[in-house]
Write a structure and sequence with these properties.
Blueprint (H helix, E strand, L loop, with lengths): L1 H13 L6 H12 L2 H6 L2 H4 L27 H22 L14
Length: 109
């Protein structure tokens, strides 16, 4: 399930779409509806990824913010982790200084 969620999230990350509550619900719905996952696992395994009914989250276009909470449904957790990895990768890329261009000489440096 983590791989499925990461692939779905990466589509949105590549497009530069921010992680909103509405998008998070859409990613969850798409991942849980994945026919490949459903065909490979019995219903008991699939229901482990269903969000408990008492865990309600907004369905707005506000950016996702869980605060200090670490009690996340599995699919939400996988999507948030994918976005965090992408943000870390962008930060690492921005932190690497560009190599300065120097004129090369025919006899070496």
């Amino acid at each position: 399930m983590e791989t499925i969620v990461c692939h779905i999230a990466e589509r949105y990350i590549r497009q530069g779409v921010p992680l909103t509550w509405r998008l998070l619900h859409a990613v969850e719905a798409e991942a849980l509806a994945d026919l490949g996952f459903a065909s490979r696992h019995d219903p008991m395994v699939r229901c482990l990824f269903d969000r408990p009914a008492e865990l309600r989250f907004p369905e707005t276009d506000d950016l996702v913010d869980f605060g200090q909470s670490n009690a996340l449904p599995a699919v939400f957790s996988f999507a948030v982790a994918a976005y965090e990895r992408a943000a870390d990768a962008r930060a690492d890329t921005a932190a690497v200084p560009a190599r300065s261009a120097r004129a090369s000489r025919a006899w070496g440096d």
